[in-house]
Amino acid sequence: MTRQRLLKIFVPVLAILGVSAVAFAYWTTAGAGSASGSVATLNAPTNVEATGGTNLAHVSWTGSTLSTGTPAQGYYVQRYSGTSSPAAACGTDPATPGTYIGHTSGTITCTDSGVAPGTYTYKVTAVYRSWTAQSIASGSATVTNPVLDHFALTASTTTPTAGIGGALTITAKDLSNNTITSYGGDKSLTFSGAGDAADGTHPTVTDKTGVAVIFGTATTITFSNGVATTAGSANGVMRLYKAETASIVVGAGSISSTVLSVTVSPAALNGFTVATPATQTVGQSFSESIKAIDTWGNAASGWISATKCVTFSGPANSPNNTAPAYPAPGGSCSVGQSDLNFDGSGQATVSITLYKASTTTTLTVTDTTPALKTGSSSQFTVSPAAASALAFSTQPGSATAGSAFGQQPVVRTQDSFGNNSTVGLGANRTVTVSIASGTGTLQGTATLDIGTAAGNGTVTFTSLRIDTAGGKTLQAAAAAGSPTLANATSNSFTVSPAAASALAFSTQPGSATAGAAFGQQPVVKTQDSFGNDSTVGLGASRNVTVSIASGAGPLQGTAMLDIGTAAGNGTVTFTSLRIDAAGIKTLQAAAAAGSPTLANATSTSFTVSPASANRLAFTTSPAGAPTITGGIAFATQPVVTVQDQFGNTVTTDNGVVTLSITSGTGTSGAALTCTTNPLSATSGVASFGGCKIDKSGTGYTLTAARSGLTSDVSSAFNVGAGSATRLVLSASATTLTAGGTTSLTITAVDAGGNTATGYTLDATLTFGGAGTAPDSTTKPTVTSKTGTAVAFGTAETITFTNGVAQVSGSNNGVMTLYKAETASVTVSDGSINNNASPLSVTVNVGSAAKLAWTPNSTSSLGTPSPNPCYFTCTYSSGFGNQNTWTANVSITDSAGNIVSSVGAGHDVTVTKSGLGNGSITPASPATLTMPATGPATSSNFVKFTGGNGQSWTNTLTAASTGFTTTATFSK
Fold first, then answer.
1. Neighbours of 218 (CB within 10 A)
2. Model pLDDT for residues 614-632, shown as the tens digit of each residue
3. Bridge-partner residues for 797, per DSSP?
């Protein structure tokens, strides 16, 4: 009892002294026995400190020991707030033995978690067996609310099937990944990370009420103690629809979650997505994509990387019954099914060709299992191919001759599969309908524009009709162009005849020979107004008469027959008809007056050929315009015809006909000329050309003759003189001596050679054809009407009287020639001349009269003036040049013509005189030898060489018996 009292007194004293509490060992119950031991104390923990945080506090202290140095076994931590009872902290609890924190050397720490916000102090109690020693209180520690850092996201399954829900658990975590138990109540969260399904279905999470909210939209989720869990179908049931590996996250404002990886598998086949093709063209293959999908558009489970049988439907056959082309069956697929390989994404790509043009085409794919899942594209357009043919979309209907078809045809452009098409069709392209089979003429507007700017691929004809009865078909043909459009042929239809209204030759009269019956006798029928055979309304008796409609006659034989229904029944056949006059004929058939009125008929032309050749006949006699002119072709040429006994031209005859002037007519000695005479007839007619008579005269006739045929004589005609067409030139003498004269006579004649007496005038004539004398200056002349000698080449006046110009004294045509030659003298008034027959005049050399120098080509002084030079020749040379001159000497007549055969003794001596330093070779005097016979030209030359650098003048003098000439050289 005493010991217990002492302890009670001691403890307060320690507290008063501020010393940590010390534990003492003592007995608390009495008992028998004995014991031994020592007394020790348990020291309280020291240096207790507390630091507040978010929903926690960090506590540290220095561990305690027994007074013997033995460390405490552990420690309890308690939290104090105001006057409230202490709360267990750091997971320790004095009421629960064994939950203390074990002793470690040095500073010991713990974290008091889940602490509500507030200000706290902490005490630490050391424990050793049953002893305890509590520290003094720590300083104040302020605990704040925890900060939400992220959410932890988990799921009941991370491999769901599309559309199957799974439960989510969402935990609020702080930065240290501690669950924030204070995080509770309704929170607005937004989910993301999963895609929309191919059909547009969004992924969802149910809110606290079970409403499925799509990802991306705020969802109300209820948390309790920092955790949100699914309750039934509410508060976090997630459904994903897109087959994918999704990275799911959830966020609240700027707070997001850890990523939850979820792999979504597709569901079973629910149908197909069939891509809607772009506009296609018939007959052209295109690639089509087909995907086997589940309810939400994912590649269907079981159709991924698989081979399956499907059927295609939708597009119709083309108008020409060409079926669509789909992939062929294979493997276990039946006929009509297609064997498709679906790839890893459940997609198959196939080639399809369609032939029916449509703007509402859809393509449907169906599987072949009993479930019969299908899928269709949207409507798309299959355009026609290029227009390649015409077609009758509306057929022509039957009608009566003369009336429009009961149903008018409509023609369209189509492609090769029968689809209506304007592809490639130009703005303008005409289409013409015509009769394809059956006779007649299509009437009405048969050509229309089917081009895109007009008919736009369709033409509707109106008022077409055919007046010829019978079965028909029409053909539609496009004008040439691009694209080529094949013709179209209509169905057959019938045109019925109208009532009889005319006669017609159903068999035409055949050609024949004059005097013989037609080779083919005519047949006449009754017809309607359109030429169809008809007896409608025809009486029992009605006479028809045939007669000549054109051509000479008469018609011989029985020309009238009965065409009535009781006799000919609309048809009469004539016999033994003939015509003796040859030529082209037509017949006319006319019915006797009566009802119905029957219009006359005219046959086609036929020919009556002539009989054998019998005679000749001038069908055209020669004639002038207004009269025939001598030497001029007749304006009207004679035509002679071979005829038979009936006067018909025998067109098969090509015999030879001869023309001649009828003996005893016209002017004696006259001549007839023609381009061709004798002349072969052509088709029985000899048409002569170019025929003319040279001499004028009166009473001419021509005779046409041929052996075996009777000759014929033309009509009489006269031939007169015509206008001058040429000049004729004659002379009193045609051999002259140079410088001699002769008198000319000039006659103007017409084409036949007759003197053109009308050529009476002062004519302006120009003469030519004679040369200038060798002296280069003396020209030939003819005197004018006044006696003036006018040089050749110059116009002058000559007087003509009655077509003739003659010399009068020394006037009007005295000609003088100077050059030794044979001249072809011509004369012309500018329009007529004698060039075709010039006057030939021989001019001989005259007597020797003078000497002439003739320099040769080695002379460097050039050509003297004149050349050849006579008497004096002048040269001029530049200063400082040395020049040479080489020449020989000739003896000429007074006109410069070189004479011949002068005889011996006429050598020429050349001497040099004058100033300067020139020289001659041979040395002066030099001798030039003149031949006694032949042309009088020296056989050797003299060479003059001028001096250098000086001005000089030299003279060379040549002398011969009776002749002298000089050459002067200046420098």
1. 13
2. 999 999 999 876 788 888 8
3. 764
The dihedral built from the CA positions of residue 847, 853, 855 and 856, taken in this order, carries a sign that is: positive
Contact 71, 63 (CB under 8 A): yes
Phi, psi of 256 (to 5 degrees): -120, 175
* Amino acid letter for position 161: T
H or E segment and range at residue 4: helix 2-17
The residue type of 113 is S
**Is 909 buried (19+), middle (13-18) or exposed (0-12) by CB count in 10 A?**
middle
pTM of the model: 0.45
Transcribe 556-598 into DSSP letters. ES--EEE-STTTTTTEEE--S-EE-S-EEEEEEEEEPS-SS--
| Three-class DSSP category at 147 | coil
- What residue has token string 């305890």? 132
Closest C-alpha among 104, 102, 99, 74 to residue 89: 99
Name the DSSP class of 300. P
Please tell me whether residue 2 adopts helix, strand or coil conformation.
helix
- Predicted confidence (pLDDT) per residue in 466-525, tens digit: 999 999 999 999 999 999 999 999 999 999 888 899 999 999 999 898 889 999 999 999
Q: How many CB atoms lie within 10 A of CB 699?
A: 13
- 919, 946, 955 from 950: Cα distances, Å: 14, 9, 16
Residue 312 and residue 348: Cα distance in Å, rounded? Answer: 13
Distances, alpha carbon 400 to alpha carbons 463, 469, 496, 556, 596, in Å: 13, 8, 5, 40, 19
Report the largest interatomic distance among the alpha carbons of the chain, rounded to a whole angstrom. 219
Return the amino acid letter for 764.
T
Task: At 798, list the tokens.
Answer: 């000559």
Length of the chain: 971
